[in-house]
Amino acid sequence: MASLAARTSSKALKNVSRTVGRSTVSPLAASRSYSLLARSTVAAKPKTTFENVRGVKTLDFAGSKEVVYERADWPLPKLHEYFKNDTLALIGYGSQGHGQGLNARDNGLNVIVGVRKDGASWKEALEDGWVPGKTLFPIEEAIDRGTIIMNLLSDAAQSSTWPQLAPLITKGKTLYFSHGFSVVYKEDTHVVPPTDVDVILVAPKGSGRTVRTLFKEGRGINSSIAVFQDVTGKAKEKAIALGIAVGSGYLYETTFEKEVYSDLYGERGVLMGGIQGMFLAQYKVLRANGHSPSEAFNETVEEATQSLFPLIGQHGMDYMYAACSTTARRGALDWAPIFEAANRPVFEKLYESVKNGTETRKSLEFNGRSTYREDLARELKEIDEQEIWRAGKTVRSLRPDYKQ
Ligand SMILES: NC(=O)c1ccc[n+]([C@@H]2O[C@H](COP(=O)([O-])OP(=O)(O)OC[C@H]3O[C@@H](n4cnc5c(N)ncnc54)[C@H](OP(=O)(O)O)[C@@H]3O)[C@@H](O)[C@H]2O)c1
């Protein structure tokens, strides 16, 4: 679908300087919704005025009160008015650049993309309808044209490109990140923002692909927001508005430091590293005891992902336990504390490795190599070739909705 932002962009790009009081957003954009599915719902509502915008929510999270900001507080006309003089310059078009950029464009904002000319991301941006010279530029030019500089390069590239990019981030612009990585680990990354710009963060809690698919479904991903530097007094408000603009449904407040510690820890732990390690350990013991690959896979991965984990997601751990046999429940209740005790020292070690910067240095070294894409692909291929995941392919092929 041709984006409205793309259609209005040539006009907008002639007016990239902050021209207070004049909107560069087409009136058509004001009628566009947060997503294709939600559009009809919003369109059916009576005219939205800023006065009827709801307040933020203070919610009780297990006894701890936290403020949550939500999309309903930022109806599209308010969002358009707020960003009427801004050009969002997305630097980098990987997973997050793709998701956040397309969502902000579909929301009717002025968005441009800056990537290495003729690199893999340039080609992907072309395929997504970004137009060279209008909405797609080499990195330096996009920064020059943007008022809000959204640094969505890989974390390693944010560090290696900083000496060239930093002088372009001039007074009046806003510097945006989706991870606290570069700024928090400044001794290693050498990313020290200029002191005269707002520095903010919107970190979606999921991959950029999910940022996009949830938006298209009319939902919105949960994101964290944080302020590192508030020069204008408006940094937090801007972070919230940008969070909604890029497709978040709910925004939770944090700091750059807490965001990066929890994120690096979580992905190395339960979300990715831990889950692969647990799956593999369980599978190997089953295989060593004579179980077939299909039985070992079904009992380790298939039942988890297809039956039990979705129940945890929907209603919590106790609900999943209650949905299983009394035999299963007894065993799970007995063994859970044993796994907790065995794993806790590993998690303590992991958190320390995140906090002291070891994980950051490893990531910068590895992802800073010119061969980082090939090197990562080689290691992922090794996982793909493990027996457990080869068995998984055959199990998955039997599903009625299987697609290769
Ligand atoms: N992915 C996630 O799940 C996720 C979730 C939340 C937050 N974040 C954060 O969002 C930010 C972006 O992450 P991502 O996963 O979307 O990006 P990514 O895939 O790690 O990075 C891809 C982008 O970086 C560019 N790039 C790499 N090396 C470069 C270099 N030396 N010079 C110029 N450009 C270079 C690539 O361009 P080429 O194609 O030209 O190489 C591409 O556009 C990061 O701070 C990340 O931590 C990511």
From TrEMBL:
<keyword id="KW-0809">Transit peptide</keyword>
<comment type="pathway">
    <text>Amino-acid biosynthesis; L-valine biosynthesis; L-valine from pyruvate: step 2/4.</text>
</comment>
<keyword id="KW-0496">Mitochondrion</keyword>
<dbReference type="InterPro" id="IPR013116">
    <property type="entry name" value="KARI_N"/>
</dbReference>
<keyword id="KW-0460">Magnesium</keyword>
<dbReference type="GO" id="GO:0009097">
    <property type="term" value="P:isoleucine biosynthetic process"/>
</dbReference>
<feature type="binding site">
    <location>
        <position position="303"/>
    </location>
    <ligand>
        <name>Mg(2+) 2</name>
    </ligand>
</feature>
<dbReference type="GO" id="GO:0004455">
    <property type="term" value="F:ketol-acid reductoisomerase activity"/>
</dbReference>
<keyword id="KW-0479">Metal-binding</keyword>
<dbReference type="GO" id="GO:0046872">
    <property type="term" value="F:metal ion binding"/>
</dbReference>
<dbReference type="Pfam" id="PF07991">
    <property type="entry name" value="KARI_N"/>
</dbReference>
<dbReference type="GO" id="GO:0009099">
    <property type="term" value="P:L-valine biosynthetic process"/>
</dbReference>
<feature type="domain" description="KARI N-terminal Rossmann">
    <location>
        <begin position="65"/>
        <end position="254"/>
    </location>
</feature>
<keyword id="KW-0560">Oxidoreductase</keyword>
<dbReference type="InterPro" id="IPR000506">
    <property type="entry name" value="KARI_C"/>
</dbReference>
<keyword id="KW-0028">Amino-acid biosynthesis</keyword>
<dbReference type="Pfam" id="PF01450">
    <property type="entry name" value="KARI_C"/>
</dbReference>
<feature type="binding site">
    <location>
        <position position="267"/>
    </location>
    <ligand>
        <name>Mg(2+) 1</name>
    </ligand>
</feature>
<feature type="binding site">
    <location>
        <position position="299"/>
    </location>
    <ligand>
        <name>Mg(2+) 2</name>
    </ligand>
</feature>
<dbReference type="InterPro" id="IPR036291">
    <property type="entry name" value="NAD(P)-bd_dom_sf"/>
</dbReference>
<comment type="similarity">
    <text>Belongs to the ketol-acid reductoisomerase family.</text>
</comment>
<dbReference type="GO" id="GO:0016853">
    <property type="term" value="F:isomerase activity"/>
</dbReference>
<keyword id="KW-0100">Branched-chain amino acid biosynthesis</keyword>
<dbReference type="InterPro" id="IPR013023">
    <property type="entry name" value="KARI"/>
</dbReference>
<feature type="binding site">
    <location>
        <position position="325"/>
    </location>
    <ligand>
        <name>substrate</name>
    </ligand>
</feature>
<dbReference type="InterPro" id="IPR008927">
    <property type="entry name" value="6-PGluconate_DH-like_C_sf"/>
</dbReference>
<keyword id="KW-0413">Isomerase</keyword>
<protein>
    <recommendedName>
        <fullName>Ketol-acid reductoisomerase, mitochondrial</fullName>
        <ecNumber>1.1.1.86</ecNumber>
    </recommendedName>
</protein>
<dbReference type="GO" id="GO:0005759">
    <property type="term" value="C:mitochondrial matrix"/>
</dbReference>
<feature type="binding site">
    <location>
        <position position="263"/>
    </location>
    <ligand>
        <name>Mg(2+) 1</name>
    </ligand>
</feature>
<dbReference type="InterPro" id="IPR013328">
    <property type="entry name" value="6PGD_dom2"/>
</dbReference>
<feature type="domain" description="KARI C-terminal knotted">
    <location>
        <begin position="255"/>
        <end position="402"/>
    </location>
</feature>
<comment type="pathway">
    <text>Amino-acid biosynthesis; L-isoleucine biosynthesis; L-isoleucine from 2-oxobutanoate: step 2/4.</text>
</comment>
<feature type="binding site">
    <location>
        <position position="263"/>
    </location>
    <ligand>
        <name>Mg(2+) 2</name>
    </ligand>
</feature>
<dbReference type="InterPro" id="IPR016207">
    <property type="entry name" value="KetolA_reductoisomerase_fun"/>
</dbReference>
<keyword id="KW-0521">NADP</keyword>
